[in-house]
Amino acid sequence: MYTPKPYKNDEIQDIKEFIRDHSFGILLNQTGNKIVGTHIPLEIDKDEFGKDILFGHISKANPQADALKNESEVLAIFNGPHSYISSSWYKKEDAPTWNYIAVHIYGKIRLIDDKTLMTCLDKLVNKYEKKSEHPVSIKGMSKETLSQMQGILGFYIEINNIESTYKLSQNKNDKDYKNIIANLQKNKNPKPKTVVDYMKLLRP
Q1: What share of the chain is helix, strand, coil (3-state, %, to 5)?
Q2: Is residue 166 part of a domain?
Q3: Measuring CA to CA, which residue among 80, 98, 109, 75 is closest to residue 9?
Q4: Within a domain: residue 30?
Q5: With contact defined as beta carbons under 8 Å apart, do 110 and 156 qualify?
Q6: Which of 10, 20, 37, 80 would disulfide-bridge 101, Cβ 3.0–4.6 Å?
Q7: Residue 77 in contact with residue 157, Cβ under 8 Å?
Q8: For 30-42, how does the pLDDT look when each residue is reduced to its tens digit (9 = 90+)?
Q9: Tens digits of per-residue pLDDT, 87-114?
Q10: How buried is 67 (Cβ within 10 angstroms: 0-12 exposed, 13-18 middle, 19+ buried)?
Q11: What is the count of structural domains for the chain?
């Protein structure tokens, strides 16, 4: 991923928190003679050795699953809030652009056994059910429902490299920066307002 220096973020804790908040990612790998991608939840965690990993699962019926072998290389992409930035928001003429956050994680697949998969699914369900009015749990599901687990392939992604872009008008002067924020806040769409939240974290 091309990341100009002003937009590069190497703060690992920021990146981890971003992935936790935007964990529905895209898994890409070489399948046959083409690149294939699947949209799936990919959660950041630690393995049994205390090393940072991503865990996920994919349907065995998905052709991409056939190419997911131990040590096979993959790319996981996480997209965050984004918004168009109008050139009319600058004091002096400049090109319009786009503010966004994106994280690319390169790594290798490690297939996991059913017991580990069950633990991962339990964490996944609990994460998203905790805000539900009537939360459910893997542990409370019937054997019939849990039998569907036989149709999925669970895996860890052992992280080799992380590329992170936080393109949030860091290169603009204070006046333009504040004006960009003011105009984004006028937008009724929630995405620009989330961009503002991240911009304020960078420059309170």
Answers
A1: 35, 35, 25
A2: yes
A3: 80
A4: yes
A5: yes
A6: 80
A7: no
A8: 988 899 999 999 9
A9: 999 999 889 999 999 999 999 999 999 9
A10: middle
A11: 1
Classified as helix, coil or strand, 19 is helix
Residue 2, classed as helix, strand or coil, is coil
Q: What is the CATH number of the domain that holds 37?
A: 2.30.110.10
**pLDDT 10s digits, 118-141:** 999 999 999 999 988 999 888 888
Strands of the sheet containing 43-46, edge to edge, are 34-41, 24-31, 73-85, 97-111, 152-167, 52-59, 43-46
- Read off the pTM: 0.91
For the chain, the residue count is 204
Domain of 76 in residue numbering reads as: 5-199
Which amino acid does the sequence have at 94? D
Is the confidence at residue 204, as pLDDT, over 80? no
- Residue 35 within any structural domain of the chain: yes
Residue 82 has pLDDT above 80, yes or no: yes
Separation of alpha carbons 191 and 179, rounded Å: 17
What does residue 107 show for φ and ψ, rounded to 5 degrees? Answer: -165, -175
